[in-house]
Design goal:
Blueprint: E1 9-11, E2 14-16, E3 20-22, H1 37-47, E4 53-60, H2 77-93, E5 97-103, E6 132-133, E7 147-148, H3 151-171, E8 175-180, H4 185-190, H5 205-222, E9 228-234, H6 246-259, E10 263-267, H7 285-295, E11 299-302, H8 308-316, E12 322-325, H9 327-331, H10 335-343
Parallel strand pairs: 3-4, 3-12, 4-5, 5-8, 6-7, 8-9, 9-10, 10-11, 11-12
Antiparallel strand pairs: 1-2
């Protein structure tokens, strides 16, 4: 029986050679939003390792939309040129499709690098900035009070997403994933824990969904129809019955599908320090299964999926359509090769690496190395 994990899948008109997705992983290694040699190495290794799609880390649509001063951005010509260099390298030497996660961190922005403690940086610090949110309610007592967005501020964010979308298209990305998870701005609008507005953008679910859907619709209009557009959501806040949950997440996903979404990437948590997460192997897969069953939208499962047989079982039991790996890929960038061996399937590899001490299953990546430009 052929492997489901190594079967192709189409998102809009973008065909992935297999269903192994490199999940977005913040590297906190950009300079003024610009990709560096670290990104070239980090993403380049995945491009030649046989995966179907690489989703680049959360990329701020504005300076104030970054999580930290070290996060990628796509608001300037300089940002675009630096990221284009990385994407061109991956496309020249690899054969994975390239995607980007566009994001705005909202009230969880202006934090330090994780290895420097990750603490909030106050706006009074030269390295920090004023954060924004649906309501004037900080993530925790350690954070500055965010500025509640007014109509002009919300319109600027929509415009920033549109501008970043056009830059992503010019760079040559195949896929955009909008970050509406992990307690960042668009998740903050969705959850009653962080959205305390009493206007048309708050209150009941229809109101809380309004601005995220407005952003989605603006990006969908600016992004070529043949390219894939999806969303990462948190399926639950992991707090209590009055918070964002999988039922509301399913309703929101149905609205995204009606608006033209091509896939949903199902994660969880991140919007409250009071969250109580029941962590374990595949702990978020049940959420993906529920949302897939309720909406029929192609679904990515992510979260402590580490073994090829585990990934294959998730797909064969129809809990999800794709498998996104993050920490597992950091630990083993050649995960796809080893999965192909375990599942008697084939994955592409760089011809430069064909002399390994294992029998690689598949064919060398065509066009690698590229023909030198005269």
């Amino acid at each position: 029986m052929s492997s489901r994990l190594f079967s192709p899948i189409s998102l809009s008109e973008i065909e992935l050679r297999n269903r192994i997705i490199v999940a977005p992983m913040c590297q906190y290694s950009a300079v003024d939003g610009n990709a560096t040699d670290w990104h070239l190495m980090h993403l380049g290794q995945f491009a030649v390792s046989g995966v179907g799609l690489i989703l680049i880390e959360a990329t701020g649509v504005s300076e104030e939309g970054r999580i930290s001063p070290g996060c990628l951005g796509l608001w300037s010509d300089e940002n675009q040129a630096a990221l284009s260099r990385v994407v061109t390298f991956c496309q020249d030497y690899g054969n994975a499709k390239m995607g980007i996660q566009l994001a705005h961190a909202g009230r969880k922005a202006s934090t330090d690098l994780p290895w420097l403690g990750g603490a909030p940086i106050p706006a009074s610090d030269p390295r920090g900035w004023q954060t924004l949110a649906p309501s004037a309610a900080p993530y925790s007592d350690a954070f500055d009070m965010p500025l509640a967005l007014d109509e002009a501020g919300m319109q600027k964010i929509v415009d920033d997403f549109i501008a970043a979308t056009k830059r992503a298209d010019a760079i040559g990305f195949d896929v955009i994933e909008l970050h509406m998870a992990h307690g960042y701005l668009l998740h903050q609008f969705l959850s009653p824990l962080s959205n305390q507005r009493n206007d048309e953008f708050g209150g009941a679910l229809d109101g809380r969904m309004r601005f995220p859907l407005q952003v989605f619709n603006a990006v969908r209009a600016a992004w070529p129809q043949h390219k894939a557009l999806g969303v990462r959501i948190s399926a639950t806040d992991w707090v209590d019955s009055s918070s964002w949950d999988v039922n509301e997440a399913s309703q929101f996903t149905a609205a995204l599908k009606a608006a033209g979404a091509d896939f949903i990437d199902v994660s969880s948590g991140g919007n409250s320090p009071d969250q109580q997460i029941d962590v374990g192997p595949g702990y978020q897969t049940g959420f993906a299964a529920t949302i897939k069953r309720e909406t029929g939208l192609p679904t990515m499962a992510v979260g402590q999926i580490t073994e090829p047989s585990q990934a294959e079982a998730i797909l064969r039991s129809d809990q999800a359509d794709m498998i996104a790996l993050a920490r597992g890929m950091l630990y083993n960038p050649r995960w796809a090769w080893h999965a192909a061996e375990a599942l008697n399937a084939e994955a592409a590899y760089a011809p430069q690496y064909m002399r390994t001490n294992r029998a690689l299953r598949g064919l060398p990546i065509p066009g690698n190395p590229p023909t030198p430009q005269k």
